[in-house]
Model the fold of this input.
Amino acid sequence: YRVFARLCQSLGIAIPFTGLSVGEVFDRFKTGLDPTKMIFIAILDEVDALVKNHDDDLLYELTRINETLTYARVSLSGISNDLRLKEFLDPRVVSSLSEEEIVFRPYNADELRNILSERAQSAFHDSVLSDGAVSLCAALAAAEHGDARRALDLLRVAGEVAERNGRNAVTEENVREAERRIEHNRIVEALTNLTLHSKLVVLSLLQLNKADVRRAITGEIYEVYTDICREVGVTPLTQRRVSTLINELDAIGLLNAQVVSMGRYGRTKKIRLEVPWPLIREVLSSDRRLHRLVDHEPKCLRKE
Done:
């Protein structure tokens, strides 16, 4: 609804925040567009998120809209971070896309340094930034994902660190401190935004770690998880679903799940925490549902 409403607004067509069907909004867009006889270019950023969260109905309508227009035409561009986007699309959408793919490579360190230097002219006083600080921000970001936003965040936080410490210049040491702070905040945010059951899985692995089980298998985690669920008063998920949650936590870097060979006993998955204990305690202790369980010892781990 919001995408179609935004398309209408770009043509000067007023659309209420709610109250109309998606079909009605789309019809108003077509009715307003056709008399303009323009080539309307619609650019959808992070189109993969749109498809995964809301299916591909919008793309289906936009890829076929030219069949219903007499004078105007629509050209569609989508920006995605997922190269597998077409795998999520209905075959009818893929067939009508007539797409041309352009893959943009990540920025390298030199390109990031140029971007940072240009932005720094507006953000910092002259002679405040050392060349080493800018180069380090660029190198760290290039080594990770080649992400300009990551490089800019590093430089911004490094400046804040230097200012907070009463320094007159931003140094490489400030950049290193900025990197640690950003990583800390990223982990805290990731843990805070987990669903209840994902938090319970992390808590289960924490309890196993405290019992000197550093690399657990899914069955061990599930046993502790069900014990904690009883304490919280929630119905535990199936072991298959918990295994899926473990994979999701592995994908975002909170856990490390590695398949190892057990010789003639086959293969199994060994799982360990990738997050320092104090951070987990910090986040879960602030959760009103879980704070009392941070120091709880599950029955299955109690030594007789």
Q: What stands out?
A: Residues 229 and 236 are 6 Å apart (CA to CA). The chain has three domains: 2-97, 109-188, 194-301. The beta strands are 39-45, 73-79, 255-261, 267-273.
